[in-house]
Amino acid sequence: MRITAVVEQCVPLRGDIANALVDFSSHTVSLVAVVSDATRGGKPVVGVAFNSIGRFAQSGILRDRMIPRLLAAAPETLQNDTGGLDPGRVLACAIRNEKPGGHGDRAAAAAALELACWDLNAKLADEPAYATIARHAGREPAGSVPVYAAGGYYYPGSGGLGVLRDEMRGYLGSGYRAVKMKIGGAAQAEDLDRLEAVIDVVGDAAAVAVDANGRFDPDTALDWAQALRPYALRWFEEPGDPLDYELNRRLIEHYDGPVATGENLFSTPDVANLLRYGGMRAGRDVFQMDAGLSYGLTEYARMLDLMEAHGVDRSQAFPHGGHLINLHIVAGLGLGGCEAYPGVFQPFGGYSPDCVVADGRITPGDAPGFGLERKPGLAELIGKVSS
After folding, report:
1. pLDDT tens, residue by residue, 323-363
2. Residues 103, 320, 323, 328: which is the catalytic one?
3. Segments making up each domain of the chain, as ranges
4. How is the cofactor bound (predicted)?
5. Is 285 annotated as a binding residue?
6. Is 182 among the catalytic positions?
7. For the chain, how long is the longest CA-to-CA vector?
8. Which CATH fold topology does 137-373 show?
């Protein structure tokens, strides 16, 4: 089998929301289709993926550097032992002649290509991607996984606490039992009022996480740790700059509750530094690296291996992203749980109708691959890049 074409489309996210630092109204995503010469029903089998959510499309890196490398490669150099695409070999080809370090946008561009190969291989095997991923890892796939609803953003003209309460009630009514909300975008007193409103709706502070999106300097992070300590929350996410491991370590020394970070770490060396210097605790803290932002599943699996080598169980891994690709990764690799974006970041956020949420758990659908073609709003875009 060989790759006959690779197509990338820059897709705008829908929604007018913000966290403590970022307004998402102008954000975009790279939707990628890897077209093969294998056929099913007289049509080429196409692997589809994207570079996660909450950053920007990587059109230039893909168009000018990575896609030409793949199309120029000898087909056999990209194949696995059964003649399908080897995602690791595709990744190595895509980043050929790239220097170490400087991961950022490059890591997300490569991830879209690498993840599309997993979708393609699962379609060739006529099975959901989580089954392909589990078999490759020598594991049994999970039938369902824990899931939490991420929301509580800063909405323009939101109407105050009433709208926030209604949002959280909607998540509970849809089958979610745990939620996450944003802090750091308002004065502390206002954000604490927002937090107490959410806890009141959910009924259990241990089911509520807060996310500062890296907003705080060291002193402010410690001040917030003191303010949050009495609530005994599910976790306190990304209090400061993701590469400030000293800040993370200091905060953990003063905060007994779980701390979550990692969504903005894009390589195994980054995760190694977090484990060495960030103070993260086995059995307590949460690692949120996202394959769609960090070179794909090949690199993400190395991150998990590194965590386990440091005594951290994979149940502490909750990937960022809230989309179908990470749902299949969580189910295939037996991770701690999955984020969901039920009402934001469309058309990529959230899940397709065949993914059932019940009592705080979600079951992937049975469509071959990641099932992106079953996602309303996304299916139409996939049809355009795949044709």
Report:
1. 999 999 999 999 999 999 997 899 999 999 999 999 999 99
2. 320
3. 3-126+379-386, 137-373
4. Binds 1 Mg(2+) ion per subunit.
5. no
6. yes
7. 62
8. TIM Barrel (3.20.20)
